[in-house]
Amino acid sequence: MKKIVLFASGNGSNAENIIIHFKNSNQGTVVGVFSNNLHAKVLDRAKSQAVPTFTFTKSELNEGKVLEELQKIQPDLIVLAGFLLKFPESIIAKFPDKIINVHPALLPKYGGKGMYGRHVHQAVLENNEKETGITIHFVNEHYDEGEFIFQKAVSIENCQSADEIALKIHELEMEHFPKVIESLIE
Ligand code: GAR
To answer: Which GO molecular function annotations are given, in alphabetical order (predicted)?
Structure first.
């Protein structure tokens, strides 16, 4: 059984969807949810699915505490699912090709620092894009620049608001993210 660790900073709908997906899998299981936000809804979601949680500060992320925890767990895959801090190079170096992220746009468009969640959808709306989508990619030392694993586009020609775009992205993430994770751990 492959060990999957999730990192999330807020709501955690992706994290919960991944946890539930792998409850019915003989390939992998989610062994922990890590969050930098003590009040994140993702922590309640993890607890209600009986998945252990670990919270940390930004300095604990960057100064070794999180790496120490990960080395105890020895995960096969680290999944950033709505994780909003920059992932430290010290951890990336120890888990080469084992850290992935989902981004709610068709990278390289709408990526980089500050481009997360609603900010992405608002920018997409303001630029009158006809389509947007999701990108799942490996994590390297630059925000949203690691090698692409998967992209899926969706038409947003009928969308009038960032919320409507967010809903379309949410649907893509719910459908595809767990399957991409599964294909990576197979
Ligand atoms: C997701 O849409 C994810 O793609 C995005 O945050 C949302 C988290 O939702 N991630 C980023 O913007 C990273 N740059 P969730 O907490 O409900 O899973």
So the answer is: phosphoribosylglycinamide formyltransferase activity
Q: Whole domain around residue 111: which residue ranges?
A: 2-185
Q: Which amino acid is at 68?
A: E
CATH at 113 = 3.40.50.170
Pocket residues: Cβ below 6 A from ligand 1: 8, 10-15, 81-82, 102-104, 116-117, 120, 169, 173
Strands 53-55 and 28-35: parallel
Encode pLDDT of 6-25 as tens digits: 999 999 999 999 999 999 99
Per-residue confidence (pLDDT) for residue 6, from 0 to 100: 98
H or E element: which one contains 136? strand 131-138
Which of 34, 39, 173 to probe ligand 1 with, by most ligand atoms within 8 A of CB?
173
State the Rg of the chain over Cα. Answer: 16
Model confidence pTM above 0.70 = yes
Residue 43 predicted with pLDDT over 90:
yes
The two structure tokens encoding residue 17? 């969807």
Distance CA 137, CA 11 (A): 21
